[in-house]
Amino acid sequence: MDRIASARRLRRTQTFAETKLWEILRNGRLDGSKFRRQMPIDRYFADFACRKARLIVELDGAAHRETADYDARRTEVLEHHGFMVIRFDNEQVLMDPGGVAEAIQAALRLTV
What we know:
Residues 4-108 form the DUF559 domain. By secondary structure, the protein is of the alpha+beta class.
């Protein structure tokens, strides 16, 4: 499967937490920053990426908790490409979307 088709499939099958976070990030709703979903970078797909700010927002569900080594390698590769990576648990997005939005805004200010 090619990368574009893979990204489209990931967008169609996003988790509930990804849907909630996308509602916060889409259409420049957060400080006017344009985010993309499932953006291909190297061999990975960033959950949410703002090219201009060089910021990636990753959501981690229960499966990610068991894959810390994989996540660390993935973060290294993404940072090597000049991105800052911040991570949130799905639970954080669902329980405190305002706090997550504030943390992302703070990260956006750091990248300017």
